[in-house]
Structure prediction request, 212 residues.
Amino acid sequence: MKNQPRLLPSLCLLLLTLTACSPKVPTPSPQTLIQQSVSATLAAIPTPTQIPLPTPYPTPTAFNLAGLFCEYQFCIGHPADVAFFDLSAQKNPTTPSSYNQGIITAFNITSQIFIQVMWQSSAGSTDPQPLLEIILDDAQDAAQGNKEIKLIRNMNVVYTAITSTATPLLPVGGAGAWNCGDRLFAWKVYTPDAASAAPLFEEAIARFTCGQ
Prediction:
C-alpha cells in the first residue's frame, strides 16, 4: 500500500478550511467552497479514522439502509464502506446544510475514493448543467469526452468522465448532475481508475429519491 500522509496536519487543514467556509455567507462562492473543501481533504489523505454515520429518516423495517445516505429530504446511494459528512455542520452544528442548499463529502482511505454531493434550489429550472459546472473545479477538474444526457425517472441527468489534479492518488473520476422536484443536485467522484466512476454514479442515481 502507498504511504499515507499524517492524520493530524490533514485534519487541522480541513478544520481551518471548514471554519472559513459557509454556504449562507455571500462570499466565498459555492465553487470556492468546493475547491477549498476538496483541496483540504485530498492534499494529504489521512490514515483511517472513524467517521460518524448520518442519521437516516425513519423507514420501514424492510427498507435497506446499507449504502444509503438519507438526510435533507433526499436519499442517495453510495458504497457501503464510505459515510458522508456535512461540511456546513462541521463549521457550526447548529447551522448544517438545509433543504434548499448544501454540500456533503465522503472518502475512504483503503479503497481510495472521494465523493462529493451538492444541491441547491432550482428556482424553476430543470437544467442541471449549471450545477455540474459548479461542482467541477476549474483549477483541478477537466471533463473528458462527450457528456451523456439521459431521462431517468423523470429527472434530467447529465454525466461526464473527468480527470483531476486534486491528488495524484485519485487522478480520474466522474461527475453528474440532475433535477428532482424543486432542487438541482450534482455529484462528483475521484477514483484511482477510470472504470470505477460510472458504476458509482449509476449506483447513486439508482437509489436516489427526493420525496416526490
Notes: The two ends are 44 Å apart (CA to CA). Helices lie at 7-19, 30-42, 87-91, 129-135, 197-206.
